Amino acid sequence: WWRPENLVDSIVRELRERIREGRVLVAVSGGVDSTVTAVLLRRAIGDRLLAVLVDHGFFREGEVEETLRMLRKAGVEPLLVDARREFMEAVRGVRDPEEKRRRIGETFARVFKRIVEENPDIRYLAQGTLYPDVIESGAAPGADRIKSHHNVGGLPSWLGLEVVEPLREFYKDEVRRLALALGLPRELAYRHPFPGPGLAVRVIGEVTEEKLEIARRASRIVEEELKKAGLYEKVWQAFAVVGDDRWVGVKGDRREEGHIVIVRVVESEDGMTADWTRLPYDVLDSISRRITSEVPGVTMVAYAVTTKPPATIEPQ
Ligand code: XMP
């Protein structure tokens, strides 16, 4: 009987057999995919694993600290690389979504290249690529390219590393079960997916500090309100998006032209198709009230009610 839980030992064994010498670099993000990848490798090859958390500055509130704490508990001690300024420079002035993704991918590659040069015994690059990622990036035969997911297809070959992807045959729900089988906390196992380029693709148009801060604070509110309503684990993703459109508002008796925040909450099996969640009106109401009162510069909250397809889940 095929159960992901039963596969832990054989995945670890295969990794150990394949990686006989040299070290493995893994970029961890705090998500379930990269965490499970890192923990499997830690079991297979011990301290020949070099886990790196690259802080690109596009994480959500408190995410970097929480991720470091969780990984240490799981026996993985990541190296924290602060590349916030480098990433912000890379996307400055860029409006086109694919160009934004391309520059973020390029910056990741540059950061990794430096790490590899400083650690010449690194021979492999491990990635938490899942089966749907393989299909969506057009890596599978016959599939159309929809978005360039930054973690698929491997980094440029000039990195000179062999790619290890222990999860490329699994769907998300199976990886969540692997996480629990590895003794990782339930909170991690049921964390929503978060795109590699982070909040940068939840900001429509140019990425500015102001818009990033709005996406960061509004997203936290969306997640908090869903948890409060007991709905967080029932949905696939829940987040807030901001662009350049404005809506005139009144604060006190003053006119204020503020940003429009779009809230997106979707249900999905594997991210390939999705339906918008029919949230109760009172939950939508709390989200809207909190965002307009707690996040400076926001005068309107809208709810995204389009399925995938035709829309994708993330705005970019
Ligand atoms: P879309 O927006 O294409 O997203 O409907 C499908 C699922 O993939 C996630 N996503 C990403 N994951 N790197 C990732 O690891 C990426 O670059 C990326 N872009 C989108 C998205 O959050 C959704 O769950």
From TrEMBL:
The keyword ATP-binding applies. Pathway: Purine metabolism; GMP biosynthesis; GMP from XMP (L-Gln route): step 1/1. Coiled coil: none annotated. The keyword Ligase applies. It is an enzyme of class 6 (ligase). Keywords: ATP-binding, Glutamine amidotransferase, GMP biosynthesis, Ligase, Nucleotide-binding, Purine biosynthesis. Residues 2-191 form the GMPS ATP-PPase domain. GO terms for cellular component: cytosol. It catalyses: XMP + L-glutamine + ATP + H2O = GMP + L-glutamate + AMP + diphosphate + 2 H(+). One of its GO terms (molecular function) is GMP synthase activity. Its EC number is 6.3.5.2. ATP binds at S29, G30, G31, V32, D33, S34, T35. It comes from the Archaea. Catalyzes the synthesis of GMP from XMP. This is GMP synthase [glutamine-hydrolyzing]. It comes from Pyrodictium occultum. The lineage of its organism: Archaea, Thermoproteota, Thermoprotei, Desulfurococcales, Pyrodictiaceae. The gene is guaA. The chain holds residues 182 to 497 of 497 of the full protein.
